[in-house]
Please model this.
Amino acid sequence: MSGTQSDIINVVSGVAHAENRETTQKSYDDWTKNYDEDLGNVGYFVPKRAVESFVKYTKHVKVEKVLDVGAGTGFVGQYLRTDAKYEGVIDILDANIEMLYLASKKDLNFRNIIRHWVEGKLPVHDESYDVMMCVGSFAPNHVPVTSLPGIFKCVRKGGLLIFTTRVQSPRSYKQEFDELLARMELDAAIKRLDTYEVVHFENAEKKINSAIYVYQKL
Ligand SMILES: C[S@@+](CC[C@H](N)C(=O)[O-])C[C@H]1O[C@@H](n2cnc3c(N)ncnc32)[C@H](O)[C@@H]1O
Model:
């Protein structure tokens, strides 16, 4: 592990405040082998909370195919299998090969493991998923705000979009994020079902929050 809780928070903060996409990805390369243990120590349960929303909102939605964007080491897939007891298709997509490699070793029965740097539309067929999830990856120098409409194309009409962003995000990321979502809602492309905040690191002294969003594709 990287050390004490504050060492771990410093690593996370370094990633969150990295100057550009190359340094962000380099940080993940260096961090991958400690990622799961470090985040377990600080109580990172945002993927688990997002999967709780998956369970709540898929009660009346047929789900056979899920895409996890910015999947990292596969936490979302893990909770989909263990907590949601979801047995259908999971494809995972991430820019970082080290993170994906770790995910591939977890015996979570992923169908496709896709390495791709998201900037807009994804390298998958339009409307080919019932649910798209993206946890912890909408952030500065991570998945750009402007890619939201492109990403949403992967979900069929009536399907769900479940994703998160940090509330106290560096720069104006969350403000731009919320403005674009509001515009898409006005354009009747999506409908908001839920938004709520959870503590990002449940065991850390300093509490920061993530917002979880649940939308339906129209
Ligand atoms: C904080 S991790 C979250 C991983 C996982 N969802 C979780 O909750 O543990 C962010 C992930 O997003 C990936 N990422 C960042 N920017 C990306 C981009 N533009 N396209 C694809 N993946 C990206 C990183 O490689 C990293 O694995």
In short: The pocket of S-adenosylmethionine is lined by residues 28, 47, 70-72, 75-76, 94-96, 99, 117-118, 135-137, 142-143 (CB under 6 Å).
